[in-house]
Amino acid sequence: MSIQQQATAVPLKVGVVGIGWAGQQHLKAYSTIDGVEIVAIAGMEAELLAQMTEEYGIPHAFARWEDMIELEGLDAISVAVPTFLHAPISIAALERGLHVLSEKPLARNGEEGLAMVEAARAAGRVLDIVFNHRRRGDVQKLKSIIDDGELGRPYYAKASWLRRKGIPTLGSWFTNPELAGGGPMADLGVHVLDYALHLLGEPKVLSVSASTYAELGPQGRGGDTNYIAGNASHKFEVEDFASAFIRLEGGVTLLVEAGWASYRDPADLMDFRVYGTDGGAELRAAQSNKVSESGLRVFTDKDGENADYQAEPLEDGNHQAVVDDFVAAVRGGETVWGRHDGSLALSRALVLDACYQSALEQREVVL
Which secondary-structure segment (H or E) carries 351? Predict the structure, then answer.
């Protein structure tokens, strides 16, 4: 029997906490993997819970996540709920002996994130975080170009995720720092930071100088057109735009921008530009309504002549690839589990902490 056959011989029993868009991506991904059984689901929306239970044939449904993790025979769970619940649910599950795949960011701050990592290490279980944008086909292609040395030594990069009117559910938990941990720097910036550092080869972050702004959200602008500020369930108490200048080891610098709302082109923009000693590259992914455009251009010379070209992206991975990796790690056994303790996500959380501290104190913060 092959290793793969051994891994799928005993079903891996998983549960999903949270049944919104993210939770549905996890359900869809698990349902495609041989030897994985979705045995439990937890969510507060009764009608949607019933719909998801029927659609995926899930035998156990719970309103409370606390009840779900007590289910006998459960091996692993996905956590796809608001940020303030990531730490309590993940830690409780890990202490129960379950493997955990959580949505980003790791937690509201580095302190909570460290507690999650320590719980994973103490339990000897997997703790993975969903950084799905590094699995996009254009990012994967650019990663291979950089790793092959085509650009030489990268020394400067700029990465962003910007929206015109994209405050998520303006006036909800997303705009409450006690529930979300921050605004677009925590929501979008963590993705930007992750794929940028991933592309650059995971250099150590030395210092951060950041600024945050809340110019449109407090006025009820930058979100859904039906939003009325006075009827919001939460005040707007986070930023709607943030920028961070990050110094990396080896003299490399990175500029990160994350914005939910600003007066710019209506199309969402995710991009990454990098300058290297032998070449440069520009990755742009834009979406406006149902029309999306993306492109990856490489700038270089050959024999002293311009040799720029458009690179073809690889196949997109996104949530499916993240869930595939998580399942593979769990099936890999104890020799693999120790390499999946949430440490990478914790490093991202600590950088975000430094960004918010820098913006608050208006100074550079050394990590």
Answer: helix 343-361
Domain of residue 277, residue span: 137-315
Q: pLDDT by residue (tens digit) across 305-355?
A: 999 999 999 999 989 999 999 999 999 999 999 999 999 999 999 999 999
Q: Are strands 241-248 and 205-213 parallel, antiparallel or unpaired?
A: antiparallel
Q: Compute the distance between CA of residue 182 and CA of residue 334 in angstroms, rounded to an integer.
A: 35
Give me 140's structure tokens: 């994967």
Residues in Cβ contact with 88 at an 8 Å cutoff, skipping those fewer than 6 apart: none
pTM of the model: 0.93
Is the domain of 94 the same as that of 195? no
Secondary element (H or E) of residue 94:
helix 86-95
What are φ and ψ of residue 345, in 5° steps?
A: -65, -35
Which residue type occupies 18? G
Conformational region of residue 26, where left means phi above 0, alpha means psi within -120 to 50, and beta covers everything else:
alpha
Structural domains in the chain (count) = 2
d(CA 319, CA 190): 16
How far is Cα 178 from Cα 176, in angstroms, rounded to an integer?
Answer: 6
Domain CATH number, residue 175: 3.30.360.10
Residue with tokens 């003299």: 251
